[in-house]
Amino acid sequence: MNVLRKEDPYLKIGETNDRSQKGESDYVWALKDINFSVEQGDVVGIIGKNGAGKSTLLKLLSRVTTPTTGYIRARGRIASLLEVGTGFHPEMTGRENIYMNGAIMGMTKDEITRKLDEIVAFSGCERYIDTPVKRYSSGMTVRLGFAIAAHLEPEILVVDEVLAVGDAEFQKKAIGKMKDVSQGGDRTVLFVSHNMAAVKSLCKKGVFLENGMVKETGDIDTVVGHYLKGDNDIANYFHWDTPVIQKQGFELLEIGVKRRGGDYMDVMRVDNDLELVVKYRLTSHFRALHLTYHFKNEQGQKMFTTSGGGRCYEREHSEGVYTQICHLPANFFNWGTYSIDLYVVENCSKAFIIENDVVSFTLSNRAVAIGSWMGKEPGDITPIFDYQENRIEAL
User: Fold this and answer.
1) Which of 33, 150, 161, 360 could bond 339 through an S-S bridge, CB–CB 3.0 to 4.6 Å?
2) Is this structure's pTM higher than 0.90?
3) What distance in Å separates the CA atoms of residue 90 and residue 208, rounded to the nearest whole number?
């Protein structure tokens, strides 16, 4: 017999929540040894692979599900948007659901009425606000649900990966609204998403879940970087006495990114001049050969491509060992980790890839004065140009 609010004495402990391996127990821990704190006004991104426990964690924080062991302490009113249609009665109209959800959150009827027009306008469902919710599309349901959760002034806003259902316009509005909610410094946002660009633009802190456990917490850029790199922590320098990367007469002997004129380091600074050093051996004759480098950001998106230019297209290469150095200017890249794909192009017509993510490098921010604050600029590259400024008229 189960006793209300008491742990089931017959519950099996089970195994770690690793969906990639076959288990022997009938039970697993969806979450285990979770321990972290969120301060008032924090905007926290919770990230991880599918099945890591992100949605389960938000259900626990929202008190939709009770934890098997442990406890959760929360101060303030929590508004949750966990799944499409959660908390909606399908037979009730959109307007009626607004009042019902507000009442569940502890709002008075007058408070809800004051916010009603704003909620309806934000949702974009004004024409159908008096239509039963069961006739709404999934996108309309998410729009209305988010509008209710965000506008009824909760102290804590919990948002799961429901924004993916909405269109581009709504996602932009939703991200903007969450920024507005958090900018006052007195309201907290917990945000789960697989869209790392949205997570990094909104959140300041991050929680990385893996197999139901907290793998890392910290500033959002660092946490997202480690999540995207996964277990494939690519070094910024490789050397092979016996080449393992060789195709069609080309053998890669060495590749790395370092400070210009310096040594290889795990982390360099954005204001360092860099150089990409490539050493290779040709075992056959090439009438015209050049190397092309594709630079990619943390999300794996190609930012730009570079090579030696037109002068390389006409260069004839005989058998032998070559070294090529590509100079990368300081203050060109933003903070973060970048990877490089290497292509070999022959006779301007045939290209073959040597390796995806053949090498990567990480840049940190320049040192700043104690007590000052410098936020991360948007974008992957932040080149500094020469400006000329003259006062042409005195006031």
Assistant:
1) 360
2) no
3) 35
